[in-house]
Design goal:
Elements: H1 6-12, H2 22-26, E1 31-36, H3 40-44, H4 46-56, E2 62-67, H5 81-85, E3 90-93, H6 101-118, H7 122-153
Parallel strand pairs: 1-2, 2-3
The structure holds guanosine-5'-triphosphate.
Family: Belongs to the small GTPase superfamily. Rab family.
Protein name: RAB, member of RAS oncogene family like 2B
Organism: Pipistrellus kuhlii (Kuhl's pipistrelle)
Length: 157
Amino acid sequence: MDCILQDFWDTAGQERFQSMHASYYHKAHACIMVFDVQRKVTYKNLGTWYAELREFRPEIPCVVVANKIDADIKVTQKSFNFARKFSLPLYFVSAADGTNVVKLFNDAIRLAVSYKQNSQDFMDEVLQELENINLDQKEEDQLAQEQCGNTKTLPPS
Ligand SMILES: Nc1nc2c(ncn2[C@@H]2O[C@H](COP(=O)(O)OP(=O)(O)OP(=O)(O)O)[C@@H](O)[C@H]2O)c(=O)[nH]1
């Protein structure tokens, strides 16, 4: 199971939108979009990030995080339209004091696992097939290695 991505966590808060390489998206089974409640521009950029995410991963679960609430607790009374507009769960978080951090990651992981188990997305099926091929290959390599090892340890006849 893969979750989007330390890089996304880092990049989403940036002031300028900078596209991420498609490979970052492809194996993600959930996305956590973070904005900084003290920097309006990071909230404004969410729409662009979300559009890019949906281009590559149309169905993965996504949650929105309002971070740094410790700096101004009153923001927790605000309603943030972006989350409502796309029906995404919104978490009020402080990475500094830990508020809601564990809950956020527990929920995101649960969503990701459930998505991975039930996904009907064509891209996921392709990736799963590739993963299976890799696993088969690894098993074959391991078997071949074991057989080589066995041959070496055979006593001389
Ligand atoms: N008060 C407060 N400060 C925080 C919180 N999370 C991160 N910071 C501070 O914000 C600054 C940037 O944190 P980073 O972990 O570097 O985050 P980043 O996403 O790379 O950077 P930004 O996009 O600038 O927020 C650091 O000085 C952190 O200490 C938080 O929840 N509350």
